[in-house]
Amino acid sequence: MDNRQDTKLVSGVFYQLSPKRESFQNQSRTWWIIFIIVVGGSLVLLAGLFLLAAQSISQIGIQVVLITFAIAICMMIILSIKDLKIEDGTLTTARGYALFIVMCVVAALILIPLSLVFLPLDSLTFWIATVGGGLTLSFTGLMIRDFYPELRERGTAGILTISGLLIVFAIVYMTFLAPFITPYLPFSINVGPVLDPPSSEYPLGTTALGQDLLSRVIAGGATMLQVAAISVAVCFTIGVPVGLLASFRGGLTDRVLSLVMDSIFAFPGLVLAIAIAAMLGPGAVNMAISIAVVYIPSYFRVVRSQVLTVRELPYVEAAVVMGARDRDIMFRYILPNVLPSAVVVMSINFADAVLTAAGLTFVGLGLPVDIADWGWDLTSGRNQMIVGAWWVSSFPGLMVVILALGFTLAGDGLNEILTPKLQE
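Given the sequence above, the corresponding structure tokens read:
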């Protein structure tokens, strides 16, 4: 008798294709509650997405949304075939990835001509939106399929992780499609009455310049995500190597670098970011640099403490005794064991970067007024609160909180995944 018949074939959030003794009707009440919430919420989001796409100023919003879904479905099918071929031993890992590349090329040759029916080839914005949105959707589906069975065993922490990642991916997907699903141009003024409250024509109301707030909320996430991504990338690429070098070398190098990082860490984060941003001037890159300087010491301290522990472990001492070079010891034996902690800090740092970027814009050190930005809408909306226009700052502020919450939940969940001892 084949023993494989008792193994789990396919698993995901709400499905598990394997021989089960319990019937479908015997699922727990919690399962049904989660099922109804997720399915109902997904249907509402899809309905809202297609409604926005149908009424967008681009006139091709529906086509763009459908193409992103087609790309996502193709990617999920291709990756599933590749994984299945590798797992059953039909192909080696190298040949499996070669098959993956070939199938992606074939899918691109089929989808590109179909896409050209709706937009010319020279529309770069179209390709960025469709490819980026499609990859985001496919990664979301694969995350649900592959990660949920493992995270479900972690209880509440696993559910919070999935929730945080879904929030982040939803905002990323919305940002990619923003040029094609916004009802009006985000920077256009006098598209409606000044400070018009939420209505059927303007679901989130208008600003003091007559701008459609819904369009600005949809497009404003691009600035936050750009600033957060650049700042976190700078922090990671500087903080991790410096922390690794300082703790491994020790001596004067460690003392000097630790003194510099502790000096930066001693300043209040937002105050230091404001001072640096004031010197550099407005702009997304300058905001990212000012935020990165504030949070580099966090990576340095985490990596340094981890290296001081790892370098005393027996396998590192054995490598030293066998005559391994310092470069090999750092990058082959120590770095892979400290990266999980750095990744956790990076995921949580995204939330800090979003809140700090909003704070910089709020004090007038962000982007120009002609760029859609949640922080700028918060700044302009604070003066409208006294006349009762609560919607101008409430909706952008809510989006900032939701994005920061998503990154925070995802970071806590990654800490659970990358730290096996927490499961014990």
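The first strand starts at residue 10 and ends at 11. Try to locate this feature in the token string yourself.
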